[in-house]
Amino acid sequence: MKEQLQIGLFDWVEASDTRSPAETFAHKLALAAAADKAGFHAYMLAEHQGTPLSIDSSPAVLLSAMIQRTERLRLGALTFCLPWYNPYRFYNEVCMLDQLSRGRLELGIGRGVSPIESQIYGLKSIEESREKYRETLEVFFAACQSDTLNFQGKYYSYREAELHLKPWQQPYPPLWFPSSNKESIEFTASHGYHTAFLGKLADCKPHFDRYREIWEQHRNDPGRHNAHVAAPYLGKSQHLVIAVCEVVEPHPPSDAQARPPRRAQERSLRRGFGAPPDHRLAAHGAGEAPGDARGDERQLPALHLLLRRPRARARDALAGAFLQRGDAQTEIKGSDPFIF
Q: What is the pTM of this model?
């Protein structure tokens, strides 16, 4: 089967020691505009709270600005953390983004990985977080199917709440559920969610092989959440560095030199709790690019080849935006339906 490789961007929108938040946001908007012109597939934003890892505390706000500066680039969040939202408002904001973009929204959903962030929103346990995630998703599906919302749940209740918005894409935008947790594959694959993998390259193929197997078994089941998507994307995030020229003097930083900022940001997500079981922070192995914004000449040949193939103009269009700060990642996805 011939497969098409799609390339997109994933961005945490990290806090900067040298730029104001206004300058950081302006840089992201310029990056989105450049990616749109270069022919990239999508630009996806993270959502985190209370950590320098991300100052994108409201993805919908930044996405709406990106929508106004782009024409064909698909845009979304990986993910909107559903337990932090009022379901009625979340539904309407998703509809607004999809209408503003005229159907270019990608809808990543999750419940968040950090207990620190959950506590900010008053969530007392992982189980409460899971229950609110599921209930918010149920409200969203119900709202997409009616002009009035009637719902009775444990946390949320709506009676004859009027709905005057519907998504541009029917029945709703394509759903993403990114996870590197093996236990989540059954749910993700059986419903046909697009997914993105954060982890070692050696672990990627067996993870995706298992996904394919389950997806094939359930691809025609009734009631699948992502049934309107013909073939799911399987994404692998990979840090890349773009240099001014194709030759860089080799001076690879030591692990201790290269990683302190990212380590500090990761610790801020889990202080006092330990690493969540489904959020593996060691995202690379021996011989792979480090999980931060730095690199050396070993990454350049692969980057050069990647951007020169069907997207030769990407290098020139994105060079200026990237070189201001190398904090975005490339997200590599295979369609029809998989990379590997």
A: 0.78
User: pLDDT tens digits for 194-210?
Assistant: 999 877 888 888 989 99
Asked whether 88 and 80 are in contact (CB, 8 A), the reply is: no
How confident is the model over 300-323, as a mean pLDDT?
Answer: 42
Please state, in angstroms and as integers, the Cα–Cα distance from residue 214 to each residue in 130, 210, 222, following that order.
23, 6, 15
d(CA 219, CA 117): 35
The dihedral built from the CA positions of residue 86, 113, 16 and 100, taken in this order, carries a sign that is negative
Dist. CA 89–CA 85, nearest whole Å: 7
* Secondary structure (DSSP) of 29-46: HHHHHHHHHHT-SEEEE-
Instruction: Sketch out the chain's domains with CATH numbers.
Output: 4-335 (3.20.20.30)
**Tokens 């709506």 — which residue?**
158
Span 58-84, mean pLDDT?
Answer: 96
Residue length of the chain: 340
Tell whether the torsion through CA atoms of 29, 179, 226 and 238 is positive or negative: positive
Q: Which residues pair with 329 in a beta bridge?
A: 10, 239
C-alpha 248 chain-centroid distance: 30
DSSP 125-156: SHHHHHHHHHHHHHHHHHHHT-SEEEEE-SS-
Under DSSP, is residue 80 helix (H, G, I), strand (E, B) or coil?
strand
**What pLDDT does 7 receive?**
85
Is the Cα torsion angle 47, 185, 106, 43 positive or negative in sign?
Answer: positive
CA–CA gap between residue 310 and residue 272 (Å, rounded): 47
